[in-house]
Structure formats: structure tokens, C-alpha cells
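**Archive record**
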Amino acid sequence: GRVERFRDELQVELRAIRRAGEDVDPSAFLPVAYRDLDELDGFLEHLAREVYDRDYRRLLDSFLQDKRFRAELRRAPCTRNRHHAYLGGLLEHTVAVATLAQEACTLHPRLNSDLLVTAAILHDLGKTREFELGAEIALSEEGALVGHLALGQQLLAERAASLGGFPHEKLLALFHCVLGHHGVESLPGRRFRSAEAVALYRLNSL
């Protein structure tokens, strides 16, 4: 077909239509991040290196050395139709929130920087499984039935278990931050129980 202008509006005049194969790249249809994804990957790795707690660093390294996870993170949108609603949006948003977290810890040294930066990098982990990509950004079955908060907690629990010997208290602190990053509605008693969880919620909102 061809695109023409009619009454100051663009319109498509179709001449033929055929079904696309299943191997079509969604980036042919969906918007893609303007920022360079290789550069964002580099920023993400730099931020992870700023985590010095042995257990949190081990957890981050496990995710970041997983090629399949890195590809999913690099490809996923952050939302369907709100902020960062494009391929690569999740990586861009993650780097932004983690950068703000690192800056907040410099200004407020009483914050546990290892916990907050780890939580910032992993807070939207569940979004790697929340969406299906095709001609549009759609919710996956998991995304529609469970949502990215619960999916993120599940992925964190599975990964920590695979590492063996991950301290339960540290994992609970990380869960609390991840589950509360949209606000207290997802938390027991509807209240924050750590300064790091409050900080992540505010930084994610920003």
C-alpha cells in the first residue's frame, strides 16, 4: 500500500494484506527506546558494582550474568500505555530509579545503600513476565492473573533459593521493598517498615 494525505490527514491506501509469520520481530510494530540500550546496560552493571553486601551482590550477579534474563530486561516495556511504554522501557526505568537510589544514599547515609540499590535494580523484575509482545503490548496470562509485584517476589525467591544459604532476613527486607514500591496498599497492615522501602516508593514515583 501507500500513505497519502487527504484533507490534511495521513491515510493508508491498502492494496494487499497478508498474515505475518509468528517469527516477526515485535520491534517492527512497537515503539522502541530512544536511548542506547548498550549504554543503559553499562550503567546497570556500574550500579550493581556499587553494592558491596556479599549476599545482595551475589543475587544481583546471578541475575545480571543470566543472558536470558538480560535479554528479557532489555526488551521489555515498563507499562502498556503509561510511562516507558516501549521496548527497552523497563531497562531505562530501572537504571533511572537505581541512579536516584544511589544519589539518595549519598545524601542520606543512614539508608542501607546495599539494600536500596539492590531493590531499585530488581523492583520491577516481574515485568519481564507481565507482558506479551506482538502488534501491541498485551498482558500475559501471568500478568493479568497475578501482576508484576507477586511475579517479582516469586522470581526473587526462586533465584535466592538457587543460590543456597541466602539469609532469610535480607530476603524479607528485599521483598518488603519490592512489594511496597507502588505504596502501602500491597503491604501487610498498610504500612512501611523500613526507610529503604519508603525511599524506593518515593523514588519510583518520581
User: Anything to note?
Assistant: The two ends are 43 Å apart (CA to CA). The longest helix spans residues 89-107. Residues 82 and 89 are 11 Å apart (CA to CA).
